[in-house]
Description:
3 helices; nine-stranded antiparallel sheet; lipid binding; START-like_dom_sf; disordered N terminus; StAR related lipid transfer domain containing 10; Alpha-D-Glucose-1,6-Bisphosphate, Chain A, domain 4; 2 domains; alpha+beta; START_lipid_transfer; START_lipid-bd_dom; two-stranded antiparallel sheet
Amino acid sequence: MEKPAASTEPQGPRPVLGRESVQVPDDQDFRSFRSECEAEVGWNLTYSKAGVSVWVQAVEMDRTLHKIKCRMECRDVPAETLYDVLHDIEYRKKWDSNVIETFDIARLTVNADVGYYSWRCPKPLKNRDVITLRSWLPMGADYIIMNYSVKHPVSQPLGGWSDFGWALGQGNEEQR
Length: 176
């Protein structure tokens, strides 16, 4: 049986495939994620104030599911420092007043792990928690951290699910 020819069209990051199959992102997935962070077409700017911008993109027109992209300017902090701070789960408990609990579950590769994170949300939202596949890769002057919600046989979140990722660029901006 012949394998189908590989598509040359950008496919976007591939870690989430129907929520049943998860793959650790490869270099192409990181490039695709960075391109999506930088893309403007198809995104609607819904908030921009004090160095924070938020864009929304409808995923399916007949449903209320949306992608959300945020950018925060951090002018006095190098991207490399933000990258290091976001990786340090013990230090996060000191600077992130919203963290309830965070811990590593399993190391998958040199730049991917599965972890747990719970946080306090402002009212009227309920506190949230999530199990994520977290992958990271410095790409020149950019530092990419991608997170995807996953199911894990040993540990499950107590509450809701969300997907998110970080792209830290040479412009000292944080994009989530």
